[in-house]
């Protein structure tokens, strides 16, 4: 369904530092997998990893995209990310202004190659 493919989502991705955040943000916007990426200031993260509680400084990306781009976005981020298990969490946007949604959809487009990959994965594009 075209409607579902164009449904807005916000994707949160944490990175090890600002340089990695900027590199990933630029990659996603340039590939048109994101219309916009916000880079949040450094924060402290506390988490379980390999049976220990860890603390780390991280930078958060908030990626504005569509459901139709998520699979390719996840693939590209996993290939380029420094973490073994990067956080890539999408949340649906329940309300969005019509002009912003139109801008988002216009600026996030799947290439023919990405459309073929999505179709092969059973997604309707």
Tally the helices.
5
Average pLDDT works out at 90
Distance between the ends = 7 Å
Question: In which range does the helix fraction lie?
Answer: 40-55%
- Remind me, CATH topology? Alpha-Beta Plaits
General shape: elongated
Low-confidence stretches: none
Main pleated sheet: 5 strands, antiparallel
Could you give the topology of this structure?
Layout lengths: L1 H4 L2 E8 L2 H13 L5 E4 L3 E7 L2 E15 H14 L7 E5 L5 H10 L4 H9 L5
Antiparallel strand pairs: 1-4, 1-5, 2-4, 3-4
Describe this structure in words.
The protein has a single domain, classed as Alpha-Beta Plaits, CATH 3.30.70.120. Helices cover 40% and strands 31% of the residues. The protein is elongated, with a radius of gyration of 15 Å. By secondary structure, the chain is of the alpha+beta class. Strands 1, 2, 3, 4 and 5 form a five-stranded antiparallel sheet that branches. The longest helix has 14 residues, at 67-80.
List keywords for this structure.
40% helix, Alpha-Beta Plaits, 5 strands, five-stranded antiparallel β-sheet
